[in-house]
Amino acid sequence: MAIGHFGFLFFFALGLWCIVSPKSIQTVALKTCGRFYGFENPLINWMKTQHYLWMLRALGIVFIVAALFLELVNLFGK
Q: Which domain range does residue 17 map to?
């Protein structure tokens, strides 16, 4: 039961972070993913676009839906 609540909190917090502050996630991603096995990351130019920020917001919605689903399963699935 505690694992289900941890999953809910994890996905819910991650979803909120993606929706509320996608710019900070973009900054972290650009800092940490600039190099890819010694080569320039092929996705780095896409990660700098507005489309990437909208993708993060959509991913945040998916995470929140997953969190709510986990909580419903945890509450009613016995």
A: 2-76
